[in-house]
Amino acid sequence: MRRYLAALTVVLAMILLLGGCQGMGGVAGPATGDFQAGLKAMERQDPDRAIDLFTRALKYGTLPDPTKAQAHYNRGIAYSRLGDLYPAVADFDQAIALDPNFAAAYNNRGLTFNRLSQFDKALADLDTAIRLDPEQDTAYYNRSYTLSAQGKTAQAISDVETALKLSPGNEVYRNRLNALRQPEQRLSPRSEARPPQAAPLALGKLTGTGFVVSGQGHVLTNLHVVKDAREIRVPGQAQPLTVQAIDALTDLALLKLPAPPNPGKVASFPEGTAPRPGDSVVVVGFPLAGLLASGPSVSAGTISALAGPANNPNLLQITAPVQPGNSGGPLLDQGGKVIGVVMGKLDTVKVAQAYGEAPQNVNFAVSGAVARGFLESNGVTVRSGPEGAALAPADIAEKASGFVVLLECYR
Hints:
411 residues; alpha+beta; Serine Threonine Protein Phosphatase 5, Tetratricopeptide repeat; Thrombin, subunit H; 15 helices; elongated; disordered N terminus
């Protein structure tokens, strides 16, 4: 499974590896042989074998510090490719301890912190990487994800522009820049901008899911759920919801109910913990409204990876089944707290055409850290608390039923 995930993503760390192989000359012995073999395993895209070889090279205890730093660095890259992010951070820590001026190690540790949604740590590392090596285009590119996740879109655009100047013609960077420059990328009630008027559409109704995130009645959902809707309603509410803010880059939208919700019926976010691959999760929403049961539906699964396609750190990959109408609903941890916003699933037809096999249960959610940053940047004070005791999925669903809402979008 770990190799399958690595094959589906564009592994940016593979590019960064090329800048970190200096300082190996003059070393002899079996440790060096294992180290060199580890590098070749990385070139063959065999991170499992590379980890074994780097580990063996380090166990000899004969590598000089510069090469030892490289061994930890490259083993960290291997762990990162496999989605084992905490061991990757530990190896980057060791590499930096051995070589405090190791710019590529700071860069990759910052990238890993991005994938862990630890954006403050990511920003500190990427700032250091750029200070140590201002010509390192990947560091600017990686920092653009950190900045956009923190709502600093103009700075993110500037970073990608710098990356393009350092690496002209890089299509990955250019596509990223085009995404950041979308005209409807951000709308804040405090700005003078207004959303573009949608072209008239045939009268119809689409449905999605949202969830209440404040005592004032703010509702979080996906932008693609409400985009181009002339009116958004919650069944049973006399008045429609209003759009407060949108972010096309993260596919998030902030709405507001016409009246505050009942006390206590507000979602909360975990405090001081980060999601991990393998953690159990629950999705609550309204898939296929009008066809299935009228109440919220519940599905359970696990976190597969802490990044989406192309190593996008704004996303989480999950196995919990997702159907049309689930979009915009909460992804909940075992304590019933929000760790993501359900977004969609992999296009199995296109993947089958490209790889010869249709993937199973490859779905995605916007990470909770990104969602929280979006809310706070738009003046919403979120509720948060410690992780708490693990609940059964049925208890999580019962808890979520108080703050999950069906959105009816009229076009």
